[in-house]
């Protein structure tokens, strides 16, 4: 069975920050996504970044993306923000470039556990393929995924980030064997992206899923599930609130 694996990005010595340019309150994923049923719908009220009060996340989403024109504006503003950000580690991490090493160490420990469970030593001859969603400049791919997967595809809607990723992941700029490489670079937003059927052993989604409306999040996971090979897995790594509710309609890198 395909697995939905969740990892909190809140770690000691890493400040809590968010890549959401919208609401960082997420509706639970519904039945049918990797056999996972999350209940206890979040109905807490909260104030957005403009001081307006909403009774719950549904109410805010209706205000922000309640019709097609609003949804188009929502996504356009989000991409426009990132188009003005420099294509560097510090840029894509919202000024927190110093957390890169700690982030990669934590992710690597987590990934090693998954690989040893999913693909034991007797199966390590398997040709492994990963998808890096919201890849930015290829930070996670270069520092982590390309060392463990033979092929990595990158999905990113911001064109100058993706061009930087191409350069960062060129053979002369990575210290891995010839059997490990970045293959495809998809310049598409996540809400419009459909992975190839059964191509991936791992779909890695880090610090970008909050860009999607609840409806588009559920839709993407349904499409992504079909992109996993047998015994493949998702990794969803996001910053979360330890308690309470945070709503924001501010289109930026930090909430």
From TrEMBL:
EC number annotated for this UniProt entry: 2.1.1.244
Keyword Transferase: yes
Pfam hit, one: Methyltransf_PK
Endpoints of the signal sequence: none
Domain of life according to the entry: Eukaryota
Transmembrane stretches, start-end: none
Broad EC category: transferase
Stored CDD domains: AdoMet_MTases (cd02440)
Catalytic activity: N-terminal L-prolyl-L-prolyl-L-lysyl-[protein] + 2 S-adenosyl-L-methionine = N-terminal N,N-dimethyl-L-prolyl-L-prolyl-L-lysyl-[protein] + 2 S-adenosyl-L-homocysteine + 2 H(+); N-terminal L-alanyl-L-prolyl-L-lysyl-[protein] + 3 S-adenosyl-L-methionine = N-terminal N,N,N-trimethyl-L-alanyl-L-prolyl-L-lysyl-[protein] + 3 S-adenosyl-L-homocysteine + 3 H(+); N-terminal L-seryl-L-prolyl-L-lysyl-[protein] + 3 S-adenosyl-L-methionine = N-terminal N,N,N-trimethyl-L-seryl-L-prolyl-L-lysyl-[protein] + 3 S-adenosyl-L-homocysteine + 3 H(+)
Record GO biological process: methylation
A GO term for molecular function: N-terminal protein N-methyltransferase activity
Keywords, ordered alphabetically: Methyltransferase, S-adenosyl-L-methionine, Transferase
GO cellular component: cytoplasm
InterPro entries assigned: MeTrfase_NTM1 (IPR008576), SAM-dependent_MTases_sf (IPR029063)
Family from the record: Belongs to the methyltransferase superfamily. NTM1 family.
Protein name per UniProt: Alpha N-terminal protein methyltransferase 1
Organism: Oldenlandia corymbosa var. corymbosa
